[in-house]
């Protein structure tokens, strides 16, 4: 398909020329850096693995004293970057890019501007073919266009239910960055994606046996995992719910109304996991939750109970809960994983409930048991030579 600039040129009867932008100076704490543009407003162009990309190139960049600068949205940002200049206007972004060694971005006006300034570009595509909006200026060896594994064709829409852009492997993005920066060993990343995670939003699960404030951000919503506790430590439970926004997850246990009223200001959702007959919940209970604007969800693990519970609570959210229980065939027990979930008990942080149960607070190895596979949607599983370094 022809490039959009060529189409505009043909239809308007003019020759394309490099853009002229009145850049606005913006103070930057480094003069040796690459830029990552973080797009969050257009769902089909929202790439969720910049954090992993930075991890993969970090040691190489440190060797040359190169920093990572993030511009664009401050939402879902890769916190392992070095500098953040988010929510700036177009001309300030242009100034930052014009001084950079390289730009990593989805296809937009900034990638065209970067190519006109001779800045190498790694361009990620989520909803359109690269041939249409590839960086127009610059030499071929100064641009890398990375397309997803299209399901027949791009969605050509602002929303992509298949999240195609996330099928671009982080190691492919990292390799492209190092290649354009002139690293000789750009192909030696010792990392291969095996199975990406389905849930991209990072979550925090709390085992409330001891209250420790680990400096959670005001935006964090903590999942209080009562379903993992043999007995509830009331003091820790109330401290977490009183001091932080939270969801409560219980198993065959209905949180009493008087408790809910005490913590209602911080309570977002109550989820009950059901695998045995449950004592009837009165209508007044749901009226209270509705009045307090607290969501309610019932997850039913025993399918024989599902129809009766849906009939009894027909105006509530009642869903069948059937997570994975076994290892997928393409996963090997030598594989490692990154978790988009943190499981916290006291001051210790684990990567899964299975790791918490086993006391594996520093392990990134796959654990082969049903508890681990239940959380598979949060795990990014990869292959790495055990004789080499690891990715955290």
Keywords:
392 residues, alpha/beta, Rossmann fold, 6-stranded parallel β-sheet, 12 helices
- Share in helix: 25-40%
Structural class: alpha/beta
Q: Tally the beta strands.
A: 17
The shape is: elongated
Description:
This protein has 392 residues and is α/β, with parallel strands linked by helices. It has a domain at 4-189: Rossmann fold, CATH 3.40.50.2000. It is built from 12 helices and 17 strands. The chain has helices at 4-12, 50-63, 90-98, 109-116, 130-133, 170-180, 234-243, 257-263, 283-291, 303-312, 353-358, 370-374, and strands at residues 33-38, 67-72, 83-86, 103-106, 121-124, 143-146, 192-195, 203-206, 222-225, 246-251, 267-274, 295-300, 317-320, 336-339, 341-345, 348-350, 379-383. The strands form 3 sheets. It has an 8-stranded mixed β-sheet with strand order 13-12-11-10-9-8-15-16. Strand 5, helix 5 (130-133) and strand 6 (143-146) form a beta-alpha-beta unit. Helix 2 packs parallel to helix 6. The radius of gyration is 24 Å and the shape is elongated. The two termini are 40 Å apart.
SSE blueprint and pairings:
Elements (H helix, E strand, L loop, with lengths): L3 H9 L20 E6 L11 H14 L3 E6 L10 E4 L3 H9 L4 E4 L2 H8 L4 E4 L5 H4 L9 E4 L23 H11 L11 E4 L7 E4 L15 E4 L8 H10 L2 E6 L5 H7 L3 E8 L8 H9 L3 E6 L2 H10 L4 E4 L15 E4 L1 E5 L2 E3 L2 H6 L11 H5 L4 E5 L9
Parallel strand pairs: 1-2, 1-4, 2-3, 4-5, 5-6, 8-9, 8-15, 9-10, 10-11, 11-12, 12-13
Antiparallel strand pairs: 7-17, 14-17, 15-16
Helix pairs in contact: 2-6
């Amino acid at each position: 398909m022809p490039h959009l600039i060529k189409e505009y040129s043909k239809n308007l009867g003019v020759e394309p020329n490099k853009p002229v932008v009145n850049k606005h100076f913006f103070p930057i704490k480094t003069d040796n850096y690459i830029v990552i543009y973080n797009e969050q407003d257009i769902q089909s162009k929202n790439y969720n693995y910049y954090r992993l990309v930075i991890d993969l190139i970090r040691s190489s960049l440190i060797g040359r004293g190169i920093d990572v600068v993030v511009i664009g949205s401050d939402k879902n940002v890769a916190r392992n970057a070095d500098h953040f200049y988010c929510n700036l206007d177009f001309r300030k972004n242009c100034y930052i890019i014009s001084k950079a060694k390289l730009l990593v971005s989805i296809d937009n006006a900034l990638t065209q501007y970067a190519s006109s300034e001779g800045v190498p570009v790694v361009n990620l595509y989520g909803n359109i073919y690269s041939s249409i909006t590839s960086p127009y200026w610059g030499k071929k060896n100064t641009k890398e266009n990375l397309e997803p594994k299209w399901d027949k064709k791009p969605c050509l829409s602002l929303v992509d239910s298949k999240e195609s852009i996330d099928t671009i492997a982080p190691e492919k993005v990292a390799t492209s960055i190092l290649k354009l920066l002139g690293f000789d060993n750009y192909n030696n990343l010792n990392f291969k994606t095996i199975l990406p995670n389905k849930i991209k939003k990072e979550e925090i699960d709390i085992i409330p046996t001891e209250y420790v404030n680990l400096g959670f951000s005001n935006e964090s919503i903590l999942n209080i995992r009562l379903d993992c506790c043999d007995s509830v430590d009331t003091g820790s439970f109330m401290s977490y719910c009183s001091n932080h926004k939270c969801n409560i997850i219980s198993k065959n246990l209905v949180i009493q109304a008087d408790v809910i009223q005490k913590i209602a200001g911080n309570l977002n959702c109550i989820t009950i996991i059901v695998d045995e007959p449950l004592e009837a919940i009165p209508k007044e209970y749901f009226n209270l939750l509705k009045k307090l604007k607290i969501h309610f969800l019932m997850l039913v693990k025993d399918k024989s109970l599902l129809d009766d519970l849906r009939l009894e609570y027909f105006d509530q959210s009642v869903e069948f809960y059937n997570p994975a229980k076994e290892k997928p065939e393409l996963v090997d027990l030598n594989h490692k994983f990154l978790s988009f979930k943190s499981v916290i008990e006291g001051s210790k942080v684990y990567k899964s409930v299975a790791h918490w149960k086993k006391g594996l607070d520093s392990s990134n190895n796959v654990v082969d048991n049903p508890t681990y596979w239940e959380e598979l949607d949060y795990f990014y599983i990869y292959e790495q030579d055990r004789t080499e370094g690891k990715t955290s």
